[in-house]
Amino acid sequence: MQKEKVVFLFILMFFFNGCDLFNARTPERPEQPRSNYEVAVSPEILLQNFTNSLSEKNVQNYLNCFSDSSFSGKEFQFIPSAGSSSLYPVLLEGWSKKNEEQYFNNLISHIAKDLPITFTKNNENSSFSGDNSIVYTASYFLVVPHNDEISKNFEGELQFNLIRDSRQVWTIYLWRDIKSTQNASWSELKGFYSPN
Fold first, then answer.
1. Is 7 within the bounds of a domain?
2. 119 lies in which domain range?
3. Whole-model pTM?
4. 31 vs 91, which has greater pLDDT?
5. Best CA proximity match to 54, nearest among 179, 185, 142
């Protein structure tokens, strides 16, 4: 009887050693690359998060840049560039954060995974507004590597109204797009990729 117990324990030890049950396995690579997102405790971090979310094509980080009325008391609003709404009437239908999500998801589905959206800004300026918000303006140049029948280059000026919400996080509650050249504006990109 004692001999059978020893043999059983020996077989059991051999089984556990043979199947690598207690050995560490090689970690799997994540499907999504690591994000550069940081909690936007300053306007500078917010603007960097916005740029990174475009480059990384990260929908959640992109949406986190926009105001949540439950924390800020302000609904996100987008005001399109002049003339773009005649091409894309959806831009005048009360563009919201949900519209941003739909447009951005649709946009990135038309871009190869390994190709980033490139967002460059110049002539940056910011000033405090009377309601403790910040008005940030810049000229922008956007390169979108899609394969659709619309420009890949978008250019204009943007105005972001930024507010610090009840969590002490800075977000964009108003985005005004301004067409300043003959190139297509960001509004036209949004209109083209809007699912409506």
1. no
2. 38-193
3. 0.80
4. 91
5. 142
